[in-house]
Design goal:
single chain; alpha/beta; Rossmann fold; 2 domains; five-stranded parallel β-sheet; 8 helices; 5 strands; 44% helix
């Protein structure tokens, strides 16, 4: 690209060349978000103009965070780098082969889904299992794995779960209905939570043997 990391350069004044350089920008983002969050506490900002300025600042900080995340994913997971010939992705419930086991990934963090794809690829299971996603994770899986299917947007979660199609639901973080566990239990579909940001009262099985979790 002609200008690498244009947002980080503009806001943070640094030109990252390796993944480790992103840490300085990430530290800035985390500090600013903490400061901004404190301004919504009762008894804080008294000027509507200054409060609106903070809102705009939050949007700018968010843009920095987005660029950090995408550069990290492009570098670590091999996502497309502005490739004009990136293949189109099948979208919608009708694109999913319901005769195969269906893994549904929901959320905003592609790492668990990427590991699922890695496992399927390493064990030559790509043609035997459907991997699909809802909301943001769906788009990220499709950047990592050409065989992924996008079910649809966040508002289709309930519809797709109640269809009974998913055989297992993988949750990471963000964009997840708070009643997704209850809905999945109604159709007897196992739910695996992969991020401490969403616990849903489930036991922590992080250290349990994989075989035990699969058997359960």
């Amino acid at each position: 690209m002609e200008v690498e990391a244009p947002i980080i350069r503009l806001v943070c004044g640094i030109r990252p060349t390796i993944i480790g350089d992103l840490e300085d920008a990430l530290n800035y983002v985390e500090k600013q978000l903490t400061e901004l969050l404190s301004t919504i506490h009762i008894g804080q900002e008294g000027s509507h103009a200054d409060f609106e300025s903070k809102v705009l600042h939050a949007g700018m900080v968010d843009q920095v965070a987005l660029e950090i995340a995408d550069i990290a994913q492009v570098s670590a997971l091999g996502f497309p780098k502005a490739d004009p010939d990136t293949p189109l992705v099948e979208l919608g419930l009708g694109t999913i082969d319901v005769q195969k086991p269906v893994i549904l990934c929901i959320g905003h963090n592609v790492v668990p889904a990427a590991e699922i794809v890695n496992y399927l690829t390493d064990n030559n299971l790509n043609d035997r299992i459907e991997v699909c996603g809802l909301c943001c994770t769906a788009h990220e899986i499709s950047r990592y794995y050409s065989g992924a299917k996008i079910v649809g947007p966040i508002i289709w979660q309930l519809r797709f779960i109640r269809s009974g199609v998913p055989d297992v639901v993988i949750i990471d973080e963000q964009c997840v209905r708070t009643d997704i566990l209850d809905e999945a239990l109604k159709i007897k579909t196992p739910v695996i939570l992969t991020n401490e940001k969403i616990c849903m009262g489930m036991p922590d099985r992080t250290q349990d043997p994989v075989e035990d979790i699969v058997n359960d």
